[in-house]
Amino acid sequence: MPTQHYEWGQDGSIPEIGEHSLAKHRIIQEYVSRYIKILSANPRQTYLNLTIVDGFCGGGLYSYKNEIVQGSPLILLRAVKATEAEISILRRNDFKINADFFFIDEAPHHCQLLRREIEQSEFKSELDRTINIYPKQFEEVAPRIINFIKDKGKAHRSLFFLDQYGWSDISLKTIRNIINGLSYPEVLLTFAVDALINYLNEDQAGSRALLSLELNRSDVKDLLKHKDQAGWRFLIQNDLYRHIKNSTAADHYTPFFIKSPKSGRSYWLLHLSKHVRARDEMTVLHWDKKNHFVHHGKSGFNALGFDPSKDISGQFSLFDFNEIDHCHSRDATILQIPEIIRDDENWNSKGVNLEEIFSKLSNNSPVTKNIAGEAIVLLREEGEIEITTKDGKARPRAQNLEWDDRVVLARQRKLWGPT
User: CA-CA distance, 97 to 84, in Å (whole number)?
Assistant: First the structure.
């Protein structure tokens, strides 16, 4: 079974943080800021209700190269405060983020250390008011938090950061309860997929850990049959991703990996949400933090698909989110978009907007809205497609597209022939 990555000592000693964990912290810090700015884009808006949950909060501090660095709770608190101040400067009216925080860790002394750090910070007055610390397992307090968010307002704006230690600390049922029980939740879930693959064997089938992932004996056998094939680890990852995707009830996902240089193992940083625009923002962050993230698959849409009649190992290349991969993604999308529109009877006859394309195709892809926009603009320049605004007018020849811009196959196309 996976063990805890970081341990804070009873004597107050703190663990050394790894580069991959620092990358995760940068992701959550920047994503919180982007999230708030997107939801507060209306200049007349005066407040935003928000709940932030850190399900495995730890003791609040780490060491890194002989320096003390803050953990996720203080990163989250300061990200919200800094973004609120940034927005307020640009507004004539006051702007307030009504944020509630839940920090959970099953180790009581971790929670004690975190409480001590917050007591010594600028957030001391908010302890036990808007800042709640629970020395419990996340699964135990999740129903209470869900009910709290429901009582807070109708929108249920909430971010769940679930940086579990392995792969079995959170059941898929709990994730479903979050997604189904709230209007606009987002979940960022760490999942140690390599550790799970190493754990899989028929003797463990039926264990409580695997049942928490809703993997029964038949499922385990189906996964293990890949071990006789080339590229078997990628195939198991692919099937596990699809299983998790189908079991959590979220509409949109990112399937990307954060790699630990020290251990050499990969694990997912899965972002689960109900809105394609949230999914796109998280994918943009993976491109921005490319030094720590990889994607085991192809460029373009349908990047996790594979052809069993071909060499499997050649279909699961390492995708590093670098400039070369950006070009490959754009070029793959240039070829795919006309085919995708042509093959859909409704899209072929009426066209399709960018948000509809992404809602259907982005989950298995490293493509962002901007990359697809580049491809669409190039297709327009080649006379393959036409772009209109939502009201049917020809789109100005700007390079950046909006979500509601419509893409229509041109009547006379160079690459794909007549409709």
Answer: 6
Can you tell me the distance from the alpha carbon of 337 to that of 363, in angstroms, rounded to the nearest whole number?
16
Token match 């300061």: residue?
78
- H, E, C per residue of 245-314: HHHHCCCEEECCEEECCCCCCEEEEEEEECCHHHHHHHHHHHHHCHHHEEEECCCCCCCCCCCCCCCCHH
**Residues 340-374 pLDDT 10s:** 999 998 898 889 999 999 998 888 888 999 999 99
Strand partners, 162: 189
Could you give the C-alpha distances from 289 to 31, 213, 371, in angstroms and in order?
Answer: 12, 29, 16
Average pLDDT, the chain: 88
Decide: 353 and 405 in contact? Cβ < 8 Å: yes
Statement: residue 243 has pLDDT above 80: yes
Mean pLDDT of 256-284: 82
Q: Report the amino acid identity of residue 91.
A: R
Query: What is the Cα–Cα distance from 332 to 327, expressed in whole angstroms?
Result: 8
Q: State the number of CA atoms in the 13 A half-sphere of 105 facing the CB.
A: 25
Is-contact 127 117, C-beta < 8 A? no
